[in-house]
Amino acid sequence: MLQQSDIQSLFFLGIGGIGMSALARYFHARGYRVCGYDRTPSPLTDQLREEGLSIFFEDEPERLAAYDLSPKQTLVVRTPAVPEDSRVYTYLREQGYDIRKRSEVLGLVTRSMKALCVAGTHGKTTTSTILAHLLYQSEIGTNAFLGGVSNNYQTNLLLHDSSYVVIEADEYDRSFHHLKPYMSVITSVDPDHLDIYGTPEAYREAFSHYTSLITGALVVKKDLPFELRLRRGVKCYTYAIGDSEADFYADNIRVKDAKIYFDFHTPTETLSDLRLGVPVWVNIENSVAAMAVAWLNGVSAHELRSGLSSFSGVYRRFNVHVHTPHVAYIDDYAHHPQELRASVESIRRLFPDRYSIVIFQPHLYTRTRDFLEEFAGVLSRADEVILLPIYPARELPIPGVTSDALLSRLTSRRKQLVEKAELVQTVADRIHEIDRPVVVMTLGAGDIDRLVPALKKALLKA
């Protein structure tokens, strides 16, 4: 697969990332020697080690000596999450290793198979995972590089002898410009990553350029505000909810016994009474997009119906951990205001009579700064909000940009800022003070997921 025929080893800088780990697994399965570095251990790096990959966690170039990696026979794959001043990264640059971004290497994969790519500010991971599941359980089959861990398969990588590959097309740092999509979905173009793009116009321009890379067909949410630049001969289809002017759409949506049912319309047929395996309102739209691409590539009506009902979701995408008459607890990766809005609206629809407690860990100083008012407006729709300090990831603090600044703008009846170490006890105490059924939701893309097991345990006792 690699263009350099003498490459025998790959070293991953930031191997514990969800996208990096999928790529590392792919090359390991293809017989390459794979090893890597990451800043901290995690359940994902533990799994990679169990699968036979070598990983170290100290930013010490001396650790590389044990791997005997020849610069001429080793490809280094890096993620932007690894800082430029990393000692390991600096050493590899100085020693003349061939260093490529993850997106560049993933682009090579899209050139060797029919790539079905899912792009957009929101919904990429869920939509691509639904699409992968629909194809994988059909006669067509697929490979897949997913941006989350599929609950159906307990992995972020699917391997198959199919000529298809499903890929989450990440717009961060213009990564998706390295891909060669055969078909693509675009779910949304709400501005994000303004630390990279600078302006909303530049962000949308990146999606316009991305559409020029598609060779087969585009399935795009109807009425998105950006310019399409499709090559001659590339077909364009729209999708929507409740809009019969779209090429693919859902209607007759209903909730029965906490399950969601709807009808799916294609250009030539209607599939009635489909059941959504994960009853989350926003997943109706994600499912329509995924089913559209699957249908265009030959997945049958029967396979679409069975695949949708058997889809069990993605880790940290509206995962229901507790559901008792008194307490429901849901965890979600949402970290952009529009994603938070979808999650909060979903719990309102599914649990309309419960008191809602939303726990949010802001992700990145720049994102918090850029969307401070939007975050405040969405979070204030909950009855109660608990904030954690900002998770910095790759960033340094920005003066005045704090969780306190967000807290001061909230209008919820009750609000507070707590440290991570205090969260579980704080929530457990609050549950006992409330005299009605409660729904608790944790939100954020940082390390708030490390608290999920303890929260689940505490809430099951409530």
Computed CA radius of gyration, to the nearest angstrom = 22 Å
Shape: globular
CATH class category name of the largest domain: Alpha Beta
Strand content: 15-25%
What is the number of beta strands?
21
**Per CATH, which architecture of the largest domain?**
3-Layer(aba) Sandwich
Order of strands side by side in the largest beta sheet? 8-7-9-6-10-11-12-13-14-15
> How far is the first residue's CA from the last residue's CA?
53 Å
At the fourth CATH level, what is the homologous superfamily of the largest domain?
Answer: Mur-like, catalytic domain
Range of helix content: 25-40%
- CATH topological fold name of the largest domain: UDP-N-acetylmuramoyl-L-alanine:D-glutamate ligase
Structural overview:
The protein has a 10-stranded mixed β-sheet, with helices on both faces. The chain has a 6-stranded mixed β-sheet with strand order 16-17-21-18-19-20, with helices on both faces. The chain starts with 8 loop residues before the first strand and ends with a helix. It is an alpha/beta fold. It folds into 3 domains: 92 residues, NAD(P)-binding Rossmann-like Domain (Rossmann fold), CATH 3.40.50; 200 residues, UDP-N-acetylmuramoyl-L-alanine:D-glutamate ligase, CATH 3.40.1190.10; 143 residues, Mur ligase, C-terminal domain (Protein-Tyrosine Phosphatase, Chain A), CATH 3.90.190. The longest helix is centred in the middle third of the chain and has 15 residues. It has 15 helices and 21 strands. It is globular, with a radius of gyration of 22 Å. The protein is 32% helix and 25% strand.
